[in-house]
Amino acid sequence: MAIRDFAQGLTEGYSNLVFLKSNFLISKCGEMLRSYEKIARGLGVDCAFICHSGSGILYTYVLAGKNLRLKIESLVKLIGELTSEAVRNGGNLLVESCPPAIKKRIDVWGQPRGDYRIMRRLKEQMDPAGILNPGRFVGGI
pLDDT (tens digit, 9 = 90+) per residue, 26-40? Predict the structure, then answer.
């Protein structure tokens, strides 16, 4: 199976997958991969990783498996810790896909950054009534 088919292969073999995409300084690739592995192991969560060292992108595939209700706390904590680690290393984390029970408890866009205020003002000018996809963008915009 090719790298491009990796996620599809996981989707077929595991239920309740969580797909995460992190970015960070390119020089931190090895450090980030080690940190992410350590965090996941510490929380007892199985993950698969693909790191693009030339771009500073790390894909994390969280293998939640069955009995999601019993694992939600660990998965929410994992996403929070991985996000913090990415931010500490000059980046952020996006949740590309996850079960609704997790999505309700996290910010899928990662940690708001300095440009959040600009995005909020643009949204207010373009959609003053707040009717276009309310709460679905960065920081609940």
Answer: 998 899 999 999 999
> Which of 9-13, 15-19, 45-49 is most confident?
45-49
Give the C-alpha separation, 26 to 57, whole Å. 8
Q: What is the pTM of this model?
A: 0.80
Q: Residue 16: what are its φ and ψ, rounded to 5°?
A: 55, 40
Q: Are strands 47-52 and 92-97 parallel, antiparallel or unpaired?
A: unpaired
- pLDDT tens digits for 1-13? 566 666 666 666 6
Separation in Å, CA 56 to CA 24, 33, 72, 103, 107: 5, 11, 28, 25, 21
Alpha-carbon gap, residue 100 to 69, rounded angstroms: 11
Residues 6+ apart with CB under 8 A from 100: none
d(CA 90, CA 95): 17
Fold for the domain defined by 3-110: Alpha-Beta Plaits (3.30.70)
